[in-house]
């Protein structure tokens, strides 16, 4: 969702830098990149390790509340959608294609973002606090496929983070990788292609994502 349907990744980046500063040492851009698409728990571990900071009992919950309150405060000013995404979702909805949101963002914040995109487009959603193992584990995608009655191999996933791409690929889905670097088996994809896309285009992406990479 973040970085694919909506352009919130810069906001997450800024807030993660703030989180690292609270622990005593600001992440470098390279270290911060490791948190892209990660669960809060994993992002916090990265920040704490970088700062050589030992979390006290219960502190993770306190910092989680701070992080999500800070994100909600920033997103209250508006949530920017990925160019071309809403017309494409409308087109796919009209053809009866089931669509699902899977995100490591927790439900309290994810719902705000899903509403901004258009909840009516989606069959359902799964968030990071609703599974035992968030991305990069494949659990979310396996469960999403189960809920729509599809084999994961029949599902096309758009992901922008290495964490998310890895999760979808492990689940056996076909994956569009909206990034400069993608895991092996993931089809590298320019999100600018969402603009003006047709159902035929989506079918072509589905076919391309199944091609073995050399």
From TrEMBL:
Domain of life of the native organism: Bacteria
Name the record gives this protein: Phosphatase
Classification via InterPro entries: HAD-like_sf (IPR036412), HAD-SF_hydro_IA (IPR006439), HAD_sf (IPR023214), PGP-like_dom2 (IPR023198)
SUPFAM superfamilies: HAD-like (SSF56784)
Gene3D superfamilies in UniProt: HAD superfamily/HAD-like, Putative phosphatase, domain 2
